[in-house]
Amino acid sequence: MSTPGTPVSGLVWRLSTRWRTRIDRAITPLGLTHAQYAVVAPLLSMQRSGTRPSQRELADFTGLEPLYISKLARALERAGLVERVDNPRDSRAVLLSLTERGRDIAEQAVDRVLRLQGELTAPLGGTDDPRTLALVRALRTLLDTPEEP
């Protein structure tokens, strides 16, 4: 149990650890790690909207470091889930897309995580409850604040 003096960082870390463990349990049977999910889920979303992002664009979209996206994309390519091709407009850039198998696994993973999100936010009234929406807004505000160098 926390007290009023408990640092926010400790609470965020504990909640993140708890939720990450639950997400890992949900997607591991699909052959995905949590880090890989952080690539295939947004890639699925972007692909559905007709976008074939570069690694840099996906990094910007997810907030992850480009080098991290590159390493994850290579591992996902080896697993047959992602296709990486040179960008014809920029020889330094690599475009990403999910393979057919990758789309199938990403769709299953997203479905599992969305169901789990409902369970995890149930104590606040569920995903559409004003308290959950306020939490999401607060977390986005904190994440959107630029880091100091």
Automatic annotation (TrEMBL):
<dbReference type="InterPro" id="IPR000835">
    <property type="entry name" value="HTH_MarR-typ"/>
</dbReference>
<dbReference type="GO" id="GO:0003700">
    <property type="term" value="F:DNA-binding transcription factor activity"/>
</dbReference>
<dbReference type="Pfam" id="PF12802">
    <property type="entry name" value="MarR_2"/>
</dbReference>
<dbReference type="InterPro" id="IPR036388">
    <property type="entry name" value="WH-like_DNA-bd_sf"/>
</dbReference>
<dbReference type="InterPro" id="IPR036390">
    <property type="entry name" value="WH_DNA-bd_sf"/>
</dbReference>
<keyword id="KW-0804">Transcription</keyword>
<keyword id="KW-0238">DNA-binding</keyword>
<dbReference type="InterPro" id="IPR039422">
    <property type="entry name" value="MarR/SlyA-like"/>
</dbReference>
<dbReference type="GO" id="GO:0006950">
    <property type="term" value="P:response to stress"/>
</dbReference>
<protein>
    <submittedName>
        <fullName>DNA-binding MarR family transcriptional regulator</fullName>
    </submittedName>
</protein>
<keyword id="KW-0805">Transcription regulation</keyword>
<feature type="domain" description="HTH marR-type">
    <location>
        <begin position="5"/>
        <end position="144"/>
    </location>
</feature>
<dbReference type="GO" id="GO:0003677">
    <property type="term" value="F:DNA binding"/>
</dbReference>
